[in-house]
Amino acid sequence: MHIGLIGLGKMGANMRTRLRQAGHEVTGYDPRPEVTDVASVAELAESLPTPRLVWVMVPSGSPTRDTVAALAEVLTDGDLVVDGGNSRYTDDQHNADLLSAKGIRYVDCGVSGGVWGLENGYGLMAGGAEADIEFAMPIFDALRPPGERADGFVHAGPVGAGHYAKMVHNGIEYGLMHAYGEGYELLCAESLITDVPGTLRAWTHGTVIRSWLLDLLVEAVQADPSLAKISDYTTDSGEGRWTVEEAIRHSVPANVISAALFARFASRQDNGSPALKAVSALRNQFGGHAVKRADS
After folding, report:
1. How many other C-beta atoms can be found within 10 angstroms of the C-beta atom of residue 33?
2. Is the pLDDT of residue 291 over 80?
3. Other C-beta atoms within 10 Å of 213: how many?
4. Out of 10, 46, 102, 166, which one is annotated catalytic?
5. C-alpha–C-alpha distance, residues 224 and 197, integer Å
């Protein structure tokens, strides 16, 4: 299959490589001339066979909305746009309506896997019409982890469902990371524990709290046991806030996710904590997110 891919950042570039390794032809566009395959969105559209499939991997908000609007001007009836970024689900129907006026189809897809997705595959959560999902399935299958499809891909529902599922996924991620961070801080505080990295590593197999996030925390503390090189200043990219807002809208008591979000706010004040250093280290490990150095 030959697809277009807009946005060749940390995830987009790796997705282009993974798709090519699976035998697909990928034409990528990015404003940076050193990474792009074509010079413009219009040239990208011209390079693709019809019906076209264009996957968008750009920052959420205005950058995604502007990209979709630009595609509406160069794509034609029957083409399909997949928004694989972290857009808020409330943007999806607007994007779908804009494209639908030109006969262009739309799918939203939450993508999880960070900088490790090239090697491990990406967890995918898609929203859209059944026929549109089936049209893009060869691409979903190439991007998802190996094994049974249902273990790494879901057609979560109509337009908007994919990004809603990814939003909740990321809210859960906030809570998990903060729990690991608090456990790390407690181990560090107790003089009886003389090997904190070893203790964490011993939890990575056979225990009920084993996970990929725990594996990544072990890597981080083995490299820097006290996380002295990392500030506890921890940013958030929006999904946690949206999850809490949805919890309020639905009257769902999301105590853990809310507390983890507010802890990130607290990390930006004068006094931080080792727990937030661990969370910051985890975000860098799985997603390549920037960390604030302790000496900055």
Report:
1. 7
2. no
3. 17
4. 166
5. 9
What does the DSSP assignment read for 5-51? Answer: EE--SHHHHHHHHHHHHTT-EEEEE-SSTTT-SSSSHHHHHHHSPSS
Q: Classify the C-alpha dihedral 116-118-122-126 as positive or negative.
A: positive
Domain 167-287: top CATH class:
mainly alpha
For residues 59-75, average pLDDT:
97
Domain ranges across the chain: 2-159, 167-287
CA separation for the pair 212, 67 (Å, rounded): 33
Burial 40-74 (b: 16+ CB within 10 A, else e): ebeebbeebeeebbbbbbbebeeebbebbeebbeb
pLDDT of residue 149: 98
d(CA 16, CA 26): 6
pLDDT, one tens digit per residue, over 124-148 is 999 999 999 999 999 999 999 999 9
* pTM of the full structure: 0.89
Assigned architecture for domain 2-159: 3-Layer(aba) Sandwich (3.40)
Q: How confident is the model at residue 272 (pLDDT cuts 50, 70, 90)?
A: low
Residue 102: active-site member? no
Q: Active-site residue among 173, 182, 239, 277?
A: 173
Instruction: Name the one residue in this structure whose structure tokens are 């790796």.
Output: 14
Cα–Cα distances in Å, from 219 out to 14, 17, 24, 197, 206?
A: 22, 25, 33, 9, 18
46 is catalytic: no
